[in-house]
C-alpha cells in the first residue's frame, strides 16, 4: 500500500489539499477497476499449475474424442478398437519421444503408438475409447451430484426447521455408508438396467452429492440473514425465486470448486468400481476396466497396464489442480500472504 | 457431558438404522440371487434352489427378512451377536471374525501412520509456506490424491516387492547406485533442514558423504542380510531421543525436563540388557503390550515427580522417550530374528495374502512374517490417506497462524517452538480430529480395493462376494463394522474436542 502511495504522489504535485490528492488517486484507480468476474478470471489465469492443467486436460479430451470419433462421427485415427490383427514386434508400442541425437528412435507416432494387445487390436484406439467413456461418466456424475447437492443444501439452509432436519439426516444417512460400498451396490443395480454408461453415471451422481450439500447449506445459512434476502422477501418474491436467483448465485464459488473436485473424485470412483467389476461392464469400456483386464500382463506387456493408468492420473491430477486454481481465484484469502511476500520481494 | 454423549449416540443409532434399511433394500434388489442356479444344468437343480431359498428366506417379504437380521444384531447388546448366514448356510459370525481381524489390523496401522506422518508434513509445510519443500510436497500430495489405488498397488508390487526380494538375495550396490542414492539423500536432507545457502551446502555434503561411506561398508559387513543394532545402538539412540524430545518441547537448558528424560533413557538401556532372555525366549503379545504400558507408565511417574513446575511437559517427554526406547528394543530383536527369518522365507516381502500359509516360527519370526505381508498394503493406504491429512493440517495451521493470539505469543518473546507446538498446533488439531474420525470408516471402505489387489481374505472379500451373489447378510456385516467404527470414532472426536479445547464443555 505504501509503495503505491509513493508512486502516485509525485504525479499529483499541483493539488492543494490532502483530500484532493486522495480524490485524484481514487479517480486514477477507478480507471482500472475490475468486476468481480474479471478479478476471478484474472486470478485464475495467473495460477500457473491450473493453466498447465487446463492445457493437459483439453489435450487429452480433444485427443480422446477426435481420434476415434464420437457418436457416429468419424475420427482421424484409421484403426478401430474392434479389429484384431497380426501382432507386430510382440505388440510393442511404436510411439517414440526421444530424438535420434539423444540415442532414441526419433520423434515419431508409428503404426501402433500405444502398442497392441494380445489379439492384435490397436491399443491406442482402445485406450482412447476408454478415456472417452471415463471422461463422459465423470462429467455426468459431476453435473448430477452438483445439482442435487446444491439444491438440497440450499433448500435445507433456506427453510431451516424441520425441512433442514430431515434433509440433513438424509445426508447423514448417505454419509454413514462408505461411498465405495454404496456406489458398488448401485453400480450393480445400474449394470442390470443395461450396459450403457449413462445409467452408471446417473447412479454415481446420486451418491456423491453429500459433501456439497453440507457446504452449500452452511453458506446459505449465513447468506439468508443478509439484507438483500429480506428485500426480496418484502417485495413478495417466492421462495424458489429467492433460492435460485438470489442465494445460489452467491454460492457459485463453493459450487464451482466442489464440482471440479467431484469430477476428479468421480474419475477415480468409476475406475475403482470398474476394476472391482461393479462399474462399467463389457461391451462398454473405461480406463478402469482396461486396467483390470490387462493387469496380469504386466510382466509381458507392461504398456497395456501403463497407458490407461497414466491417463487416469493425468486427468485426475489436472482436474484437481484446476480445482485448486479455482478455489484460489474465488477465495483469495488463503493466498494473500503470498502476494504480500512477493510484493515485499519486488520492492526489496 | 454424559447427556451430550448419550444424545449424540442416540441420533447416530437412528441414522445407522436408517442407513441399514436403505442398504438392505438396495442389496436385495441389486440382482437375482438364484441366477447362477437358473442357468445350471445340474440334476438336483430344483433341490439346490430350494435349499438356497431356505437359507436366504427368499420366500419371505423383504421386511421380514430385514427384521430377522435386525433382531439378530439386536442380540449384540446381550453380547450374543447373530449376523445370520450366507447363502450356503455358513454363519457370518465365524466369517467376520476371520475377516475383520486382518482388515482392522491393516486399517488401524495405516490410519495411525498416516496421522503421524500427515500431521508432521502438514506442520512442516505450513511453517515453510511457499518454500521449495512446500511446493514439492503440495505436488506430491496432489499426485497421491489422483492415484488409482489398484494401479499404484501393482506398481508397488512390481518395483518394490519383487525388486527388493531379488536384491536381498545378494545385497550389493554398484558405484553409480551409491552416488545416486547419496546425492538424493543429501538433496532431501538439505530440503528438510533448510537454512542459509552455506548451511544447506554443509548439510548436503555431510549427508551425501555419510551415505557414500555407509552403503559400501554396510554391504561389506553383510548388514542387509544380518542387520544389528545391539545394546549400544539401542542405548545411544534412546539417549538421542531423550535429548531431541527435550529440545523440541522446551530446549535442553531446562533441567527439570532434561533430567527425567535422561533417567528414562538410562532405565531403558539397563532394562533391555536385563530382559534379554525374556525377549528372546518367552516373548508373546501379552508381554509386549504389558511392557509397552510399563514403558509409558514408569517414565510418566518419573516425569511427574521430578518435573516440578514443568511436570506436564516432563511427563510427556519422558513417556515419549520410554515408549520410543521400548520400540527400539523391539526393533533390535526384530533385527536379531531377521537372518533366521530370511532362511525360512527367502523372498521376504509378499505380494499376496495376509500371512504365509503353514508358517511355523517363533514369536519374532511370525511377527516378521505378518509384518512383511502387511508392508505393501500399509504403505499404499498410508500414502493415500496421508495426502488429505497433510493438506488439512497445512490449511488449518495457516488459518490459525494468522490469528491475533499467535502474534501476541510471538510478541511477548516466546520461542518459535513454543508458539508453533503449544499455541498454533493445539488449535489446529480441532478440525483434524473430525476428519480423522470420518476417514477411518471411509478407509475400511477403501481397503476393499487394497485387499482385492493383494489377495487378502478380509472384509473386502466378504463384501464383494456378498454383493456379487446378491446375498445381503455378508454385506450388512461389513456395513455394521464400518458404521459402528464411524459412530465410535465420531464420539471419540467429540471427547477429544473437549480435552483439547476447554471452551467446548458441553
UniProtKB/TrEMBL annotation, chain B:
The ABC transmembrane type-1 domain sits at: 100-493
The membrane topology of this protein is:
Multi-pass membrane protein
| Disulfide bond as UniProt keyword | no
Task: Report the subcellular localization.
Answer: Cell membrane
**Positions in coiled-coil regions:** none
Please provide an example of a Pfam family that matches this protein in its UniProt record. Answer: BPD_transp_1
- Keywords in UniProt for this one? Cell membrane, Membrane, Transmembrane, Transmembrane helix, Transport
The record's annotation in InterPro entries points to:
BPD_transp_1_N, MetI-like, MetI-like_sf
List where the protein spans the membrane: 9-28, 106-127, 139-156, 176-194, 201-224, 230-250, 257-276, 282-302, 314-335, 374-392, 428-449, 475-500
Q: Which family does it belong to?
A: Belongs to the binding-protein-dependent transport system permease family.
* Name listed for the protein in its UniProt record: ABC transmembrane type-1 domain-containing protein
State the species of origin.
Zhihengliuella salsuginis
Amino acid at each position: 500500500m505504501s509503495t503505491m502511495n509513493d508512486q502516485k504522489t509525485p504525479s499529483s504535485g499541483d493539488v492543494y489539499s490532502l483530500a484532493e490528492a486522495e480524490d485524484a488517486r481514487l479517480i486514477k484507480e477507478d480507471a482500472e477497476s475490475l468486476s468481480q468476474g474479471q478479478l476471478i478470471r484474472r486470478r485464475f489465469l495467473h495460477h500457473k499449475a491450473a493453466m498447465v492443467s487446463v492445457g493437459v486436460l483439453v489435450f487429452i479430451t480433444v485427443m480422446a474424442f477426435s481420434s476415434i470419433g464420437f457418436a457416429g462421427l468419424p475420427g482421424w485415427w484409421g484403426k478401430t478398437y474392434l479389429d484384431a490383427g497380426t501382432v507386430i514386434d510382440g505388440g510393442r508400442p511404436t510411439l517414440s519421444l526421444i530424438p535420434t541425437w539423444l540415442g532414441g528412435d526419433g520423434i515419431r507416432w508409428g503404426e501402433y503408438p500405444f502398442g497392441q494387445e494380445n489379439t492384435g487390436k490397436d491399443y491406442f484406439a482402445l485406450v482412447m475409447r476408454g478415456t472417452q467413456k471415463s471422461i463422459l461418466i465423470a462429467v455426468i456424475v459431476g453435473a448430477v451430484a452438483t445439482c442435487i447437492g446444491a439444491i438440497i443444501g440450499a433448500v435445507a439452509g433456506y427453510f431451516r426447521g424441520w425441512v433442514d432436519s430431515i434433509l440433513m439426516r438424509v445426508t447423514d444417512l448417505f454419509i454413514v455408508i462408505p461411498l465405495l460400498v454404496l456406489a458398488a451396490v448401485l453400480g450393480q443395480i445400474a449394470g442390470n438396467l443395461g450396459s450403457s454408461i449413462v445409467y452408471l453415471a446417473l447412479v454415481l451422481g446420486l451418491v456423491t452429492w453429500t459433501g456439497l450439500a453440507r457446504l452449500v447449506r452452511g453458506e446459505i445459512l449465513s447468506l439468508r440473514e443478509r439484507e438483500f434476502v429480506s428485500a426480496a422477501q418484502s417485495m413478495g418474491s417466492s421462495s424458489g425465486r429467492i433460492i435460485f436467483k438470489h442465494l445460489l448465485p452467491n454460492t457459485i464459488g463453493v459450487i464451482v470448486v466442489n464440482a471440479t473436485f467431484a469430477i476428479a473424485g468421480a474419475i477415480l470412483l468409476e475406475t475403482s468400481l470398474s476394476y472391482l467389476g461393479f462399474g462399467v461392464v463389457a461391451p462398454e469400456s473405461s480406463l478402469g476396466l482396461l486396467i483390470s483386464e490387462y493387469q496380469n500382463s504386466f510382466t509381458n506387456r507392461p504398456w497395456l497396464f501403463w497407458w490407461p493408468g497414466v491417463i487416469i492420473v493425468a486427468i485426475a491430477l489436472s482436474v484437481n489442480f484446476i480445482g485448486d486454481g479455482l478455489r484460489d481465484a474465488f477465495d483469495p484469502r488463503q493466498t494473500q500472504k503470498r502476494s504480500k511476500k512477493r510484493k515485499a520481494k519486488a520492492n526489496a | 457431558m454424559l447427556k451430550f454423549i448419550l444424545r449424540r449416540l442416540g441420533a447416530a443409532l437412528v441414522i445407522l438404522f436408517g442407513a441399514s434399511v436403505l442398504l438392505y433394500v438396495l442389496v436385495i434388489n441389486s440382482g437375482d440371487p438364484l441366477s447362477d442356479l437358473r442357468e445350471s444344468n445340474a440334476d438336483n437343480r430344483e433341490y439346490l434352489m430350494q435349499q438356497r431359498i431356505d437359507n436366504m428366506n427368499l420366500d419371505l417379504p423383504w421386511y421380514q427378512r430385514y427384521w430377522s437380521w435386525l433382531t439378530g444384531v439386536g442380540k449384540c447388546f446381550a453380547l450374543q451377536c447373530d449376523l445370520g448366514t450366507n447363502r450356503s448356510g455358513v454363519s457370518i459370525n465365524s466369517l467376520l471374525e476371520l475377516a475383520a481381524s486382518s482388515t482392522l489390523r491393516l486399517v488401524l496401522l495405516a490410519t495411525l501412520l498416516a496421522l503421524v506422518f500427515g500431521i508432521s508434513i502438514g506442520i512442516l509445510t505450513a511453517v515453510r509456506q511457499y518454500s521449495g519443500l512446500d511446493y514439492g510436497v503440495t505436488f506430491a500430495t496432489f499426485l497421491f490424491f489422483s492415484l488409482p489405488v489398484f494401479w499404484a498397488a501393482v506398481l508397488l508390487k512390481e518395483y518394490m516387492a519383487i525388486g527388493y526380494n531379488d536384491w536381498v538375495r545378494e545385497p550389493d550396490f554398484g558405484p553409480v547406485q551409491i552416488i545416486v542414492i547419496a546425492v538424493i539423500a543429501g538433496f532431501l536432507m538439505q530440503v528438510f533442514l533448510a537454512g542459509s545457502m552455506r548451511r544447506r551446502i554443509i548439510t548436503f555434503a555431510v549427508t551425501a558423504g555419510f551415505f557414500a561411506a555407509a552403503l559400501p561398508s554396510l554391504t561389506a559387513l553383510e548388514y542387509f542380510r544380518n542387520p544389528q543394532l545391539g545394546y549400544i545402538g539401542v542405548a545411544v539412540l534412546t539417549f538421542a531421543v531423550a535429548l531431541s524430545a527435550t529440545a523440541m518441547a522446551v530446549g535442553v537448558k531446562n533441567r527439570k525436563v532434561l533430567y527425567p528424560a535422561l533417567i528414562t533413557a538410562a532405565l531403558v538401556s539397563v532394562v533391555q540388557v536385563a530382559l534379554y532372555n525374556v525377549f528372546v525366549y518367552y516373548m508373546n503379545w501379552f508381554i509386549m503390550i504389558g511392557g509397552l504400558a510399563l514403558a509409558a507408565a514408569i517414565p510418566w511417574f518419573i516425569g511427574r515427580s521430578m518435573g516440578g513446575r514443568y511436570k506436564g511437559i516432563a511427563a510427556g517427554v519422558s513417556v515419549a522417550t520410554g515408549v520410543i526406547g521400548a520400540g527400539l528394543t523391539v526393533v533390535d530383536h526384530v533385527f536379531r530374528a531377521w537372518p533366521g527369518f530370511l532362511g525360512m522365507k527367502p523372498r521376504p516381502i509378499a505380494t499376496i495374502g495376509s500371512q504365509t500359509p503353514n508358517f511355523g516360527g517363533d514369536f519374532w519370526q511370525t511377527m516378521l512374517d505378518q509384518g512383511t505381508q502387511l508392508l505393501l498394503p500399509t504403505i499404499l493406504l498410508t500414502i493415500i490417506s496421508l495426502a488429505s491429512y497433510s493438506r488439512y493440517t497445512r490449511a488449518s495451521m495457516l488459518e490459525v497462524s494468522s490469528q491475533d493470539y499467535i502474534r501476541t505469543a510471538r510478541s511477548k518473546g516466546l520461542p518459535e517452538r513454543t508458539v508453533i507446538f503449544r499455541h498454533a498446533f493445539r488449535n489446529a488439531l480441532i478440525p483434524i480430529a473430525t476428519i480423522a474420525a470420518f476417514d477411518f470408516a471411509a478407509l475400511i471402505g477403501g481397503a476393499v480395493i487394497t485387499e482385492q489387489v493383494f489377495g487378502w481374505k478380509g472384509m473386502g472379500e466378504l463384501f464383494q462376494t456378498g454383493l456379487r451373489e446378491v446375498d445381503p447378510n455378508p454385506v450388512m456385516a461389513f456395513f455394521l463394522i464400518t458404521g459402528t467404527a464411524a459412530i465410535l470414532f465420531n464420539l471419540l472426536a467429540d471427547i477429544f474436542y473437549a480435552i483439547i479445547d476447554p471452551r467446548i464443555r458441553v
